[in-house]
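tokens incoming
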């Protein structure tokens, strides 16, 4: 009897244990806690620039500096610069930028091109651009330039269209290939309007020798010019002053100088150097940087002729149409490049 009772108790306990197991629920899994993983911060592009003159020159260097400031606002770059750097000292400045970890070094003048070709191979992971450059000897060098004559060609067209003496002048800072190309563009533009026009040419040998610039232009005035194009850096201001005193017309360059003498500067042959700075930075920002020579012209906005509004309203429709027709031909590639000897 005892054995039977014990057996019944064992069976009951076994059944209870089965019921308990059947009714037990698996413990709920704890919800996964998402970790707050921060994306690594993107380092800003670091750009180092060397300028051949003052960033307050109202022309070439100032335009390049303004493009830097704009790139900082638009793209968040960091930049540093040195101004008035002689070519002989430029290599050391470039190397210092490279050692300090700059991603892009901009040599903002074509006279730095040979030095860039020497320095760039030492820093294959650093990118270099040369504003108005003429050669790329390494994969990390981009020479970004313009035609060098589109703007001056249109200035020549305008000068010939408004000249009454049929004698006009053009002044450059140097007698380099680029200086000659600019002046030849002016000559060709003038002669496209008036084949018999006389064009007087000169160069100062300096971007800052205002006295010499004024002397050269005074000499041209004595020979009968009534329009002068000057593309000579700080010398331009002395040339415009001389033109104003003599009562002749002036064409500014390479930026809009109509505000300097609103009654004298009829237009400006602009080659905004900031476009070379901007182009190189944006190519790098878009991860599209390739070495080579890039030629930007009137079609790309690298050159143009900007009217002084007061004179644009004063000149005849024929003068305006003549300049606009030349601009369209240049944009379409219908005008041959000037031959420079």
């Amino acid at each position: 009897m005892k054995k039977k009772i014990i057996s019944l108790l064992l069976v009951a306990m076994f059944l209870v244990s089965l019921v308990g197991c059947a009714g037990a629920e698996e413990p709920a899994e704890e919800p996964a806690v998402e970790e707050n993983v921060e994306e690594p911060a993107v380092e800003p592009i670091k750009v180092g620039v060397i300028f051949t003159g003052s960033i307050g020159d109202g022309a070439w260097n100032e335009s390049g500096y303004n493009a830097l400031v704009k790139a900082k606002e638009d793209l968040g770059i960091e930049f540093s610069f040195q101004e008035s750097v002689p070519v002989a000292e430029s290599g050391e400045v470039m190397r210092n930028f490279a050692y300090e970890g700059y991603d892009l070094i901009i040599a903002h003048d074509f006279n730095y091109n040979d030095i860039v070709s020497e320095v760039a191979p030492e820093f294959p992971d650093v990118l270099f651009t040369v504003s108005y450059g003429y050669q790329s000897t390494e994969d990390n060098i981009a020479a970004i330039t313009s035609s060098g004559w589109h703007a001056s060609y249109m200035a020549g067209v305008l000068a010939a269209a408004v000249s009454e003496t049929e004698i006009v002048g053009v002044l450059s800072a140097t007698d380099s290939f680029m200086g000659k190309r600019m002046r030849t563009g002016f000559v060709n533009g003038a002669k496209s309007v008036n084949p018999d026009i006389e064009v007087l040419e000169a160069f100062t040998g300096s971007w800052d020798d205002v006295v010499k610039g004024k002397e050269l232009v005074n000499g041209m005035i004595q020979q009968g010019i009534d329009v002068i194009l000057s593309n000579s850096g700080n010398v331009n201001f002395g040339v415009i002053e001389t033109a104003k005193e003599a009562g002749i017309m002036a064409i500014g360059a390479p930026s809009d100088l109509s505000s300097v003498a609103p009654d004298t500067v009829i237009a400006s042959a602009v080659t905004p150097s900031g476009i070379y700075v901007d182009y190189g930075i944006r190519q790098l920002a878009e991860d599209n940087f390739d070495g080579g020579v890039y030629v930007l012209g009137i079609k790309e906005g690298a050159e143009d002729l900007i009217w002084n509004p007061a004179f644009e309203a004063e000149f005849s429709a024929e003068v305006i149409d003549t300049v606009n027709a030349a601009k369209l031909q240049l944009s379409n590639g219908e005008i041959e490049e000037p031959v420079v000897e």
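note: The chain has a mean pLDDT of 89.
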